[in-house]
Amino acid sequence: MLTDLDKEYLWHPYSSTTRPGPVWQVVGAEGVHIELADGRKLIDGMSSWWCMIHGYNHPVLNQAAKDQIDQFSHVMFGGLTHEPAITLGQKLVEITPEGLEKVFFSDSGSVSVEVALKMALQYWQAKGEIDKTRFVSLRRGYHGDTWGAMSVCDPDRGMHHLFKGMLAEQLFVDSPSCKFADQWNESHIEELRALLSAQSKEIAALILEPVVQNAGGMHFYSPEYLKRARELCDQYDVLLIADEIATGFGRTGKMFGCNWAGISPDIICVGKALTGGYLSLAATLCTERVSDEICGADPGLFMHGPTYMGNPLACAIASASLDLLSQMEWQDKICDIEPLLRVGLAPAGELPAVKEVRVLGAIGVIELNQPVNQSELQPKFVEQGVWVRPFGSVVYLMPPYIIEPEQLQQLCAACLSVVSEL
Ligand SMILES: *Cc1c(COP(=O)(O)O)cnc(C)c1O
Q1: Residues 189-208: tens digit of each pLDDT
Q2: Which end of the chain is more exposed for a tag (fewer CB within 10 A), N or C?
Q3: CATH value of 2-54+330-420 in 3.40.50.1100, 3.20.20.70, 3.40.1190.20, 3.90.1150.10
Q4: CA distances from 60 to 276, 320, 324 (A)
């Protein structure tokens, strides 16, 4: 069996080689379906880690890939440029919140976060503010698995507490306590205000995932928090980095999480759904204030340059994916998905194992009282004909935007069925 060779040779995400969890071999994928080697077709409720928004094997994205591959699939970005990168850069500047004008491409979300952190540090260095070297982050935050990104992830509950003490020591405030639709009150921002007020001289930037803290537990919080965080960053001269890698491109019901609050960050990271799930590509955008400052002082260069920077194949597909997004009236689509998730998942609220059910845009979450046993639950979802991969204490859905109502109902029903047995 091929999967025996998988066990012999391969390491999977967050996994053990001596006690490997179950894996299923995929032989095809089309629309919202993942096809397994044994012929079963699963409805994908994960969009392959939140990327595959238009579904698998999309004719338009396939064509964009083929067209580009027949021209050239890669050239170095140092000293060379090409239409796919230029077009995509222009589109990103157009759709991201106002003021973000310069685009730096990289190969994954984590790297785009490294780039963002570096931009913030170089900005303050260029201004001669050499003590501004630390970052403020929110507990429950997740920003990636590379070294700098790990330092701004939740230091205790996240997956990176093993490295505590080895990473740069950043500053943390509690995860926003004001839920998405809760009444705002100023006490919700007091900890952040007090920290910035006391230590802004050593703080380069605040980094956060706007509106939804994703891998840290699918926590939705009030846009008012974002609005006030933006004001406080301005007041205390701290840059704001929005990590929109998970929330970007319509997932929460707005194009970007920041749009819920009508704010613009100084630096934004996008990735995941950027290529519609076809290839790994990310981008960090910043304001001209940031780029001009970095480039205005010695050495006047931004010191980063991934080998596969601006990969033409990835950029061409990303451009096509953004075009699809603008043609599909994504906002209507998410508006259709949201109530179906609400209705479909609501009965879970009555189950003993469930703490809370919540839905925002095309994200549906069942939060449990206890952490899940992933290796036990996963086969149950497969038996139900769906691909749902719970983590921590959440069973959640982030379906492709093209999903049909009946397929969505099937996903919800599978979640209810599996959770009701807990
Ligand atoms: C997934 C994710 C990352 C990391 O992106 P990779 O492409 O896996 O490196 C960073 N931040 C957020 C919010 C994410 O969801």
Answers
A1: 999 999 999 999 999 999 99
A2: N
A3: 3.90.1150.10
A4: 11, 7, 8
